[in-house]
Amino acid sequence: MGYEKLTLKERQFYLAKFEGILASKKLFLKKDFSLPELASESDIPLHIISYLINSEIKLHFKDYINLMRIEYFKEKINCTQWNDLTLEKMILASGFKSRTTCYRAFLKHVGITPLKYLESKKIAFNHQKTSEIFFLNVPSTIYYRYLEKLESTITSKKLFLKNDFTLPNLAEETGIQLSTLSYLINSGINSRFNDYINLKRIEYFKEKITEPEWKGFTIDEMGKASGFRSRTTCYRAFLKHIGMTPYEYVKGQKEGSVLD
């Protein structure tokens, strides 16, 4: 079958299959991971994968894989097991073959070097202890008042629908200090900021798929309308938090096999 003749359903099936395998097996962490390996792992013809990455995701294979590595790097830098890692070890642990490859990818897709990104995140992290001491010395009602303000601001304004929404943006919207917000999300909601926002996007996605205005949407359009920056981010969030891809979730809803 020629890839030009693939139906929408077939394209979505193949995309869901190889992206699900990539995310679940974390194949992007292999430094020498190649397109033929992805074809072998997914049992999808190489030319079909290449066509779909270029036409549907609109990226070259190397950029596509490097973006996954960057997202992994960004997710892991606040994990305790990475606390003692040097930048070089973080780069290698994210699947990059070398410092040069990593720096080029970050500059191309994020606009700053991994070192600058790491430094910007560590500023907020290092100040977190101050917020912890503050909340230990005030009544619990004040703590929960902050939590309520945080939740109500995000929900009422649907701030999670902004695909570039950040913790500093939330601090500006709520009038709560950035370090205080970071502590509240970690301790009160027991989550990381990215996971917290992505869970909001997933819930929005799940609520909207039955509404008439979404009837003609593709999975990609649904993901973007829910605030996800990219297909990769959306798929990884779904796999992490509900154990299936958005395509599988929508398909299950249509077949009546997924219960919320």
Describe this structure in words.
Helices cover 67% and strands 0% of the residues. The chain has helices at residues 8-25, 35-42, 46-55, 61-76, 87-93, 99-109, 114-126, 128-136, 140-157, 167-174, 178-188, 193-208, 219-225, 231-242, 246-255.
Order of helices and strands: HHHHHHHHHHHHHHH
The helix tally amounts to 15
Largest sheet: none
Assembly form of the protein: single chain
Beta fraction: under 5%
The number of distinct β-strands equals 0
Describe this structure in a few short sentences.
Helix content is 67%, strand content 0%.
Furnish the topology, listing elements before pairings.
Layout: H1 8-25, H2 35-42, H3 46-55, H4 61-76, H5 87-93, H6 99-109, H7 114-126, H8 128-136, H9 140-157, H10 167-174, H11 178-188, H12 193-208, H13 219-225, H14 231-242, H15 246-255
Helix pairs in contact: 1-2, 1-3, 1-14, 4-6, 8-11, 9-11, 12-14
Main attributes of the structure:
260 residues, 15 helices, 0% strand, 3 domains, mainly alpha
